[in-house]
């Protein structure tokens, strides 16, 4: 995820969202566990995919809920964990697991992929109305290959069931950021509401015309999307470089993003159709 960014504070907009987030049910995962999963970064993409499968299993996701979906012309599959809800309405939460050869790819994007199992774990202890589909996408760095394959192979009926796609890419470099200009208005408003209610920082850093995210593969089908990251003008040059290592990540910021996303997903389960 290579980005030039424009920083825009959203404090005033958050205040304008009105009512605080509804009461939600979720099970917090400790900072120790979230940090331990982050530190399981591997340099080899096949090893990263295997590590992600292991983390999903550790979080309680096993076959048939946990599957690998092959992608044409790619050796490494998408990894998909499904948390069934009481309806067939779907919320997709995605993060690519691959990285370029430079550095460890700790920020871009093991930070996102490693958070998926913790978000799953946070939601799985309470009944859900929506079915949550957590996906570790392959080959994002080759041109969104994994997310395109997933979205393109869904039937029109299955695409219509997706109420939201939440993309998480490159976390822990700073406090939580959102690509506001491309975000679905409803999803953005609800994220602002949750952040304001939790008193957690949230800023808009937009990357229009200088980058792409896996959410684009779902935008193509008019599915509501939102992309969460942590990139600023000061940190975007770390990406795709030898400096993209665990040493540049801030665990406090990373854990705050986990907390925000865990409550946000539980909140979306309450407020989306």
What is the helix content?
A: 25-40%
* Rg estimate, integer Å: 17 Å
Structural class: alpha/beta
Would you count the extended β strands for me?
A: 9
CATH superfamily: Zn peptidases
Number of helices: 10
CATH second-level architecture: 3-Layer(aba) Sandwich
Summarize the structure in words.
- The protein is globular.
- The chain has one domain (6-271): Aminopeptidase.
- It has a 9-stranded mixed beta sheet, sandwiched between helices.
- Helix 5 crosses helix 10 (251-271).
- It has 273 residues and is α/β, with parallel strands linked by helices.
- Helix content is 36%, strand content 17%.
- The chain has 10 helices and 9 strands.
- It starts with 5 loop residues before the first strand and ends with a helix.
Task: Name the descriptors.
273 residues; globular; Aminopeptidase; 9 strands; 9-stranded mixed β-sheet; alpha/beta
Topology of helices and strands:
Elements: E1 6-9, H1 11-16, H2 31-38, H3 45-58, E2 66-69, E3 78-83, E4 90-96, H4 106-113, H5 116-123, E5 131-137, H6 145-153, H7 156-161, E6 162-168, E7 177-178, H8 185-198, E8 203-206, H9 216-219, E9 225-229, H10 251-271
Parallel strand pairs: 4-5, 4-6, 6-9, 7-8
Antiparallel strand pairs: 1-8, 2-3, 3-5, 7-9
Helix pairs in contact: 3-5, 5-10, 8-10
